[in-house]
Design a protein that fits this description.
The protein is an alpha/beta fold. The chain is built from 7 helices and 9 strands, in the order ββαββαβαββααββαα. The chain has one domain: Rossmann fold (3-Layer(aba) Sandwich). Helix content is 27%, strand content 19%. It has a 6-stranded mixed β-sheet.
Length: 236
């Protein structure tokens, strides 16, 4: 997660994290994923951020046919970071509606289209951005990215080698996030032309965490380690 400072989570909130992969957020109380460690090894490495799945003792639930196994408004807050770009366009409306169903507040973080125009990650199936509070999505298979495959794969290899992690130079250019309250606006577009027409109007610049925010967050994270995690039965 690049912009945790955008989240406003009260101490009393019950928090669900969707798609934590190998890096669950310390504030989450419960995890939800499409796979677990019993899945095929190639799924683990590609979908969990290049590492094994990690729960840190938090209960892990698995989605079934896209449905979250929880009652309506069971959670006060949902964290969904670096996930939507992995969800096929045909499944996105249900995915978003399930977040809306189980909670009225959430934080969503996604890579902007520039991230894939730079690296073209195979596991990313969408080009995305957030413009004027609305999530914009284009099925990546309909784009012309394949025509520059040699270029993107070369840059991806350099990133893996630690030579060219450009997203760390200007995070808000390559990653965006927003906290939502109520419904989450989603617009799926059909062409690159329409996608770029919309994102040209983007004016937001996502602020990075300040030194004081990071220090306070580190203290809270350390204190959380002494708190016992809730059992699976709590969420039944």
């Amino acid at each position: 997660m690049f912009f945790p400072n955008l989240m406003h989570i009260n101490k009393s909130y019950l928090v669900l994290e969707v798609g934590p992969g190998g890096y669950p957020h310390w504030r989450s109380d419960c995890l939800l994923d499409k796979w677990d460690q019993s899945s095929e090894s190639d799924v683990n490495t590609s979908q969990f951020g290049g590492t094994a799945q990690v729960t840190k003792g938090k209960p892990l639930f698995i989605t079934k046919d896209g449905i979250f196994p929880f009652k309506d408004k069971r959670f006060d807050y949902v964290i969904c970071s670096q996930v939507l770009e992995h969800v096929p366009v045909c499944d996105l409306p249900l995915f978003i509606s399930e977040i809306n169903r189980v909670s009225s507040r959430c934080y969503i973080e996604i890579p902007t289209f520039l991230y894939d125009y730079m690296y073209d990650f195979e596991v990313h199936v969408n080009l995305m951005d957030i413009v004027n509070g609305e999530i914009i999505c284009l099925d990546k298979s309909t784009t012309s990215l394949h025509s520059v495959n040699r270029f993107t794969q070369h840059l991806l290899q350099k990133r893996i080698e630690g030579v060219f992690p450009v997203e760390m130079v200007n995070k808000s250019l390559f990653i965006t996030g927003k906290e939502f309250s109520g419904n989450i606006p989603l617009r799926i577009v059909e062409s690159e032309e329409k996608f770029f027409e919309i994102i040209r109007g983007k004016r937001e610049n996502t602020p990075s965490p300040s030194f004081f925010w990071l220090a306070r967050n580190k203290i809270n994270q350390t204190l959380r380690k002494y708190k016992k995690e809730k059992p699976v039965s709590f969420f039944g």
